[in-house]
Every structure is written in C-alpha cells, then in structure tokens.
Amino acid sequence: MLHLAVDIGGTFTDVCVFDDGSGTTRVGKVSSTEDPIDAVFDGIRAVGVEMGEIGLFSHGTTVATNALITRSFPRAAMITTKGFRDVIEIRRGTKQDLWDAYKDVAPPYIRRRDRFEVSERVDYSGRELEPVDEEELRRVAHLIRRRGIETVAVCLVNSHANPGHEERVKEILGEELPGVSVSTSSEVLPEIFEHERFSTTVANAVLSPLVGGYARRLAERMKEGGYRGDVLLLHSGGGVMTTEAVERLGGRLASSGLAAGAIACGHIARLAGYENAVGFDMGGTSADISVMVDGETRVTNDWYVEYGYPIRFPSVEVLTIGAGGGSIAWIDAAGSLRNGPQSAGSNPGPACYGLGGEEPTNTDANLVLGRLGAELIGGAMTLDREKAEGAIGKVGGPLGLDTVEAARAVVQVANANSADAIRLALIRRGHDPRDFALVAFGGAGPLHGAELARELSIPTVLVPLNPGITSALGCLLVDVRHDFSEMRLVPADETEPPEIEARFQALEGEARERLRAEGIGEEDVRLVRSVDMRYLGQWRSLEIPVEGEVASLDALTARFHEEHERQHTYKREGQPVEIYGLRVAAIGTIPKPELPYEEPQEHEPEPENYREVVFGDGEALRTAVYRRDGLRPGARIDGPAIVEQLDSTVVVPPGDGAEVDGYSNILVHVGGAK
Description:
The chain is α+β, with helices and mostly antiparallel strands.
C-alpha cells in the first residue's frame, strides 16, 4: 500500500510517498498554486504515482489559516443573547503592542450589522429565566436570508451550562434557512467565558463552509482520478479529520499546516533517541517553532491566528515568526538592518530565482555566501548569483558594507530573530536549551540550524532525511483525533472521585460514538483523559493528565502543584484548588509508515566537489560539498562542509562535526563533540 501525504505551504507544496511493501520513500516539491488543489495534483504527478495505487491519503493545508488572515471567507451572521452583541468586538480590551497607541486590533470576523440579538436567557447554573422569542428569531432569519448570508454562529450566554436554547435556535434556523451552515457554541466549545467561546464559534462558522467545500472538491477530484479511500485532513490538534467532520468543525483546520511539522519533528527525534527536542521548521515565508518535552509535543488551548480572536480548539503549540528563505531584508527609519516579516513568496520570489523579484532575501544572502549552490530542487530551478548580489547591494550600500559583508549581516539578523523566538519557546516554560536537540527542517532550516544551536548552547542539530518534506511526512504519522470537553467548575477537596469518573465516562461514550461513525473499530480507539485545574481565584488553568480511573483527587492536586511550580516557579500547597473542566482526546489509530533503519557502519565519505563558502568570521573557506544520497548510515564529516539534496541544503560550519545515524538523519555536533 502507498501512503501519500501532501503539505501545502505559502511557497512550495511538498509530497511524500511511503511504500509499505519496500519501506522506501519518494518525495517531490512543486510550486504552490492559486487554487491549492491544483498543486496537490501537480505534486502527485511529480512523484509518478497513479491514484489507484494510493491506499491512504493525508493532507495538511493552509487554506483555513490564509482565509482568516486575508478575510477571504463567506459572509457570516451571528445570533446572540440580547445585550451581548459586542462581546467579540470588546474582546478582553488588550492590545498586542501595549505602547503603540495608533495600532488598532483587527476588526471582528463578523461585521456589527450582521450580529443579531434575540430575547432569551438562562442563568449561570443553566436554569431558564426567559424562553427563546421564536417570533423574533424568525424575523432575524428572514433578514439573514435577504442578505444572502451562507453561515451563522449561534452564541447564547451560559449555553455551556444548558444548550437547550441554542439547540432550539438551530432547529428553527434549519426550517427558515435550508442550506445555511449553523455553528452553535454549545457544540463547538461548551466552556465558560463568553469571549473565548463566541470567538471560537465565529471562527468555526466562517471557516466550515469554506474548508468544507475545499475538502469536498478535493475528495471528488481524488475519486475521479481513481482513489477509493478517505481524504484525511490534518487539524490543529495533531490528528486528522474526514471530509464529513471538516464540514462540521472547519475551525479545527485553522493551523493545519503548522501542526504537521511539529508532529514529524517529535517522531523523528524520538526515533533518534531524543526525548527533548525543539523543532525549527524554516520554509520560504516563515519559521515555525515547536517543543517536545519528555517525548510529548506541547498542545495548547490558548492560541489565535489574529490577535484578539482566540480559537480554543486544542492545537499543537507552534510559534511562528516571519523568517523564511524568502524573507526580505530592509533598512528601517533609524538606519538599522531588519529581516522580515515581509516575504518575496514564490512569485516573484527571491531575486536569484530570476522571476522578477528585486528585493534582498535570506536566499539571496545564502547564495552570495556560497552556502547555496547554483541549483535547487534537483536542478529544476537555477539560481542567478549576479541578481542576488545586486539585490543584497540594496542594503549593503546604505550601510557601507560590501556585498559579502551585507550578506553576512542579513543572515545574522535572520538568525538573531529565530534564536530569540526559540529562547521564548523554551525559557519561558522553564526549560534549559542545553537539554534539547534542535531538529532543523523545512527548505531553509538546515542552512541556519548549526549557527542557531551555537547561539543557544544547544549541543546537537538533527536534520531529517528529507528536511524540506518533513511536514508532509508528518501528515502520515498522525491518527484520527477528536477532542471533547466539559465545564466542571467545582472545588477539588469538595468533590468525590466517582462524580468525576462518571463525567469522564460520559465524554468517552460520546467520543467512541464519534469515532465509530467515522469507521474506526473499537480495537483502534485510544482515549486520553486530562483535567484543567487552577488555584481558587485564578484566571487561567493548567491541563493535568489523568491516567486510568479517577480513584483519588489528592494525587491530581499534587501533580497540579508540581506543574504550577515548574511553569510559574512557585506553588501554594495551602491554597484551595478547583477543577475547571474535563477533557478527553479520542484517538483512532490508522496505519503509519515505519521509517527504515540500517545499522551504521562508520566511514568517511568522499566529497563530490569543493567550493568557496563564507562563514562567521567573514573568510571564504574551501568547503567540501557532499550529495545527501551518497551518505550512508555511519558516515562522518568534519566541518566546514555542505550537504546538498533535492529539498534542502545542510551547512556544517568549521569546528563542527556531523554523522549519519541509522535512520539516515544527519546529526551535527556543535563544537565537534558527540
């Protein structure tokens, strides 16, 4: 059986094919297209696969992320309790940049004129105070129909405690607005805090018709081509969804493309023997940073695509910065050199692509320094060094630097931006970078990995076999996953374990039913429990894993104190602790590829050629250039060295040593020590 994965990025679309029978992997890389589905089929053709040969298809996409950023989604309406129309506009009253009085937060995804109020009310405990005014609701539905609105978010106050009113509103809208998508907050996120619940529901409402339609079109074209299986789409939480689930919970794809790389990073690091790893996925437009601690990739419920509009679906925690191969170097008003977040993208791309780009980028700088060769993607793209030098001169001239000095400065600023982001991801969580391996992947990650590791005192850089295709590989390493939650705001010392156990079992029953409806057999179901806890009076909670049956809450409380001390450097064991909510992750396992392993045989390979490369001290050094497909497990290389392959280029600076492990990963040991 062939496992096929496609990951669509802003610049390139990556394809990974794993053959179950032979244990071999094929990869391909094509330019992203205006209609992402066209790039999917371009990539499939590039790897020479027939649709009928594919047994499993998994797909990560940035369609939902880009839709939120560009506001390119169907016109939506919101129906809420009278008096709560402006919750999503008031937000939390905060700003991302506290000191910029002139920078406003982006407007809500639904305009105020399309946010409607209806008379109804339940109290905090779920007791009905005022029934839904159905006549008023039908008048609102008439207005929605006249405006041609395609999707509606139903966000009633306290519906997390009693969903009855929202269910009735959805029923009436189904009668009045056939064909219109309806998302209710009690289904999407049954949790307290109106802003977070409303915001998540609105995001789900605007995305579900868009990504649902995208998933349907993709599934239809795959079926026409001869594919007979399910089209699985990677969601933010690090699992996959069927096209039917996407139509109902499209908001879960809001960071689909980011999760794949983090999943692959964790899997590859564990195979190589590292339980702590930080992923550095540097592509053409941005760099994504993820963290794995003790073999578990971090998941968060507190994230957003645009500041001020939280999406509370569980998501693999990824920090994204505007630092990619196509990030543009520029000089600010104070005369300082900056790098990104503006990007040249794939069209026209960096100046060296020769497609019309004229701005200096990180790719141009690496070409000037000799770290990149004259070709990319196995010769499919030729790089123009003369145009790269001309572009770099645009920042070198004003700074009084020659071309090589300017290129070095561009790379140094890009590395500084990335190093600061990695420090933030690690140190703010109380982690020491020296305890981690840096997994450098993406098309540009291995170019910068060793210098970043040296800056951060990280001892080892791990470069996967196909770094530019790693995110696509991640799509093949995940399972079907759905997350279920329930508010349970009770003091931990006043609650009996059987009560919590009963609520967990109810959530698990719902989870099993969902997976059964998607064709997952009981033997392939895995349920993971956790509980959100906090000190009495706190605003935010911590998620604490629950192993097995809840027999005692004292053990959970003790784990909460320990986790609170680790994350916030203090604990208050005498302070009352309350349970905030219960969570169950429902995982349906699907077949995954087993990466081939070959016992390393130590040897020193012969370089293919040599070229002059500029490193940190500014001197051009004669540097050995190797082909990645010529390096077998056990190969040892001393820097300075360059390793070239179809999808990326690995830089081993002077003084560093590298070896190839049994999974064909390159391990760069900073300073040469293992």
